[in-house]
Amino acid sequence: MKRRISALFTDPVYRAMYALALPIIVQNLFSAMVNSADVVMLNYVGQSSLAAVSLAVQYSNIIYMIFYGLGTGASILCAQYWGKQDTAAIQKILGIALRFSLGTGLGLFLLAFLIPEPMMRIFTNDEELIRIGIGYLRIVSFSFLFWSMSEIYLAVLRSMERVRISTALSVSALLMNIFLNAVFIFGLFGAPKMGAAGVALATSISRGIQLVCCLAVSSVSPDVRLKITGIFEKAGVLMQDFLKLAIPATLNDVSWSTAFSMYLVIMGHLSTDLVAANSIISVVRNFGTVLCFAVASAAGIYVGKTIGSGNMEKAREDGRKSMVITLLAAAAGSLLIAAASPLILRGVSISEAAKGYLRIMLMIHIYYVYGIAVNTTLICGLYRAGGDSRFGLICDTIDMWCYAVPLGFITAFVLKLPPMVVYFLLCTDEFVKWPWVLRHYRSGKWIRNITREEV
Question: pLDDT of 113-132, one tens digit each?
């Protein structure tokens, strides 16, 4: 037993994953801090602003998952080509990913800027929340254009083990976001007092600054650069490989995030108190899973590089070790939520009904993080590192759209069960798919070298 514990700190594989995970943890922490800062500041503006932004931001979550899926498709290939030290292929992959991300960013910018009202009515029929959400969406839409380029570039940097540079760029933007949130929400330093719209303006400005920083780093990068002209370069067989990996990964992330947004549709039509409580628990969940998502990213980078080098047996063993770290990260997240729950309940300024919902939500999330941790490391980390993004698409689509979403609508609007019973049933989504996810992991079919000798 002592030897196993000692190995967690001395084994070179564990230490390499820690080195990759630590900067990502810092980045995720700051990202969670931005979300919590939004909630804390809007908490002082009013419950309506808090609830409206928590609904409108679902579109940002969806577009993030699109960019994350495209970035994953790029990083799957890049990590394996990085194992072969083929930077020319990596540059071409970056250009391919930018074609799709820029097109998506432009399309969603136009939707959010031109027709924000119908977008808000999907989530709620409360006129005040719709009015606030319209102002938020019109302003935040500009961030989609900036984000479409920076997110892909940062994903490629991470796949090349340059997580410190990626983290520095992300953290600087997040710190700027927090500062600008305060400035525009409360009208500091002579700025207009914009409330919920101030959150959107802060997001757009900080995303723009992040893109400028990415371009600055790219200009001195020796082997991979963020070039718009790269989207016009011929990609050949790399385009085929990218589509085989990126399309399932992107559809997987969009399918999952859209289904998760349906949870908000259900809650938004049940109670504004429930929406307010969920806006708090979303922040808590982000903090509770910071370590889990960092481990999943680090495992994907490390194992992908190992597979690209051609050592399949080592890749399997590295995958096993990443699962050990995942369970430890989940335990830490669970303890954090349990310890912070009394402080959270005392610190939030929401109605008593919303606080009652939040108390139960906190209890549910003490164990819910385990489901998130295991599935994220396997589906988004290891399976994608091995070029198997199709399994996650099938598994998550069936789980969310054939089980969780129908279950939520039936229990909420047909059976009319109490809101917390509906919420509890929705939170079984991660555990229902465990038997299939774990069986696929044990089979080892996800380990594949997808690089080509000549590109």
Answer: 998 888 888 877 888 888 88
